[in-house]
Design a protein that fits this description.
- By secondary structure, the protein is α/β, with parallel strands linked by helices.
- It has a single domain (2-143, 218-272), classed as Nucleotidyltransferase, domain 5, CATH 3.30.420.310.
- Helices cover 41% and strands 19% of the residues.
- The strands form three sheets. A five-stranded mixed β-sheet has the order 9-8-7-10-11, sandwiched between helices. A three-stranded mixed β-sheet has the order 1-4-3, with no helix packed on it.
- The longest helix is centred in the C-terminal third of the chain and has 18 residues, at 204-221.
- The two termini are 17 Å apart.
- The relative contact order is 0.15.
Length: 273
C-alpha cells in the first residue's frame, strides 16, 4: 500500500513469482489483495507484464517519457493497471527493461536523479541508462548479478565464493582489475589457480564481486557523460558500485530502490487521476 506522500503504508511479501502462479490464477491473487486492502487502485510492474505474465504490456520504445509509459498501461481489470517496460533498438543493439522504469521515474520525480545524465540500476541484470531530457534514452544491461550467482552455485569456483561480499581491499583489487583489463573470464579462473598454488590469501568472494562489478562499470562508463552517476537499487549493491565508480574517478549518488519504486508508483498514479 502506497500512501499519498509516496511512503509505504503496508508491505506484504510472499514467495510467489510470475512463474509460480498457475494459468488463470492472477484474478484470484488480485481478489486476495483486495480482500485485505479493499477496492484501492492496483498498479503492477515488472515481469507480470511480460509474455509469461498475466497479459503482455508491450514495451515502450526509447526514448520513453513518463507520459508515454502511463499512456501504454494495460488494464486487465477495472482499477488494475500493468505498467509497460521499455525497449531500446539501434542496429544490432537491443535491450529491454521491466520494473526499473518505475524506479527511474520515481527518482526523477523527487529530483534525486538527473534529467540528463547517466544512471545505473545494479541488480541481477544491471542497467546503465542515459537519461535525455527526462526520458529513458539508450540503455544497456549487464548480467553481473546473475553471473556472480551462477558462479557461486555451480562450477569450479563454488567453494571459493560462499562468503559475504564487502567493499574491502580485495574487492577494490578486483574492481581495479576489472576496470583496467579486458580479461574477465581468464581472471576468474585465476582465482582458483591462485588458491590451488597458495599464491596470496584472499577474500575470494569480494575479489570476484569486485572483478565483475569493475568490468560492469567499465561497460557503463562507455555510455559517456562527466557528471555524478545516480545509482538506484538495494543499498548494499549501490555501495559496491559507488566504490567501483570512486576507483574509476567518478562521483555517485545512491538512491534506495524501494523508495524510488514507491515514488514512481505515486508519479504514475498522479498522472492517472
Amino acid at each position: 500500500m502506497v500512501a499519498a506522500g509516496g511512503q509505504a503504508h503496508e508491505i506484504l511479501d510472499d514467495s510467489l513469482g510470475v512463474l509460480k502462479i498457475e494459468d488463470g490464477g492472477f484474478p484470484a491473487e488480485i481478489a486476495s489483495i483486495r480482500q485485505h486492502h479493499g477496492e484501492e487502485p492496483v498498479l503492477l510492474a515488472g515481469m507480470i507484464g511480460s509474455n509469461r505474465g498475466w497479459i503482455e504490456a508491450p514495451y515502450v520504445p526509447a526514448p520513453a517519457s513518463l507520459d508515454a509509459i502511463v499512456a501504454a498501461i494495460r488494464w486487465p481489470q477495472d482499477g488494475v493497471g500493468i505498467v509497460p517496460g521499455v525497449s531500446y533498438r539501434s542496429g544490432r543493439d537491443a535491450d529491454v527493461m521491466r520494473g526499473e522504469e518505475v524506479q527511474i521515474f520515481g527518482a526523477l520525480a523527487e529530483e534525486l536523479a538527473p534529467r540528463d545524465g547517466l544512471l545505473c540500476h545494479p541488480g541481477t541484470h544491471a542497467k546503465w541508462v542515459r537519461m535525455e531530457s527526462g526520458a529513458i534514452g539508450p540503455f544497456r544491461s549487464v548480467m553481473t548479478g546473475e553471473l556472480f550467482s551462477t558462479l557461486s552455485r555451480h562450477g569450479i569456483l563454488i567453494d571459493r565464493l560462499q562468503e559475504d561480499v564487502f567493499p574491502n581491499d580485495d574487492f577494490r583489487a578486483g574492481a581495479e582489475h576489472g576496470l583496467a583489463h579486458d580479461d574477465l573470464t581468464a581472471e576468474l579462473f585465476s582465482i582458483r589457480a591462485r588458491y590451488l598454488l597458495g599464491v596470496g590469501a584472499c577474500d575470494n568472494a569480494s575479489y570476484a564481486s569486485g572483478l565483475l562489478i569493475g568490468a560492469d562499470v567499465r561497460i557503463g562508463l562507455a555510455f559517456g557523460g562527466t557528471g555524478p552517476i545516480a545509482l538506484i537499487g538495494r543499498p548494499d549493491l549501490t555501495a559496491l558500485y559507488a566504490e567501483a565508480l570512486r576507483l574509476a574517478g567518478r562521483d555517485a549518488t545512491q538512491i534506495d530502490g524501494e523508495h524510488a519504486f514507491l515514488l514512481g508508483a505515486r508519479a504514475i498514479a498522479e498522472r492517472l487521476t
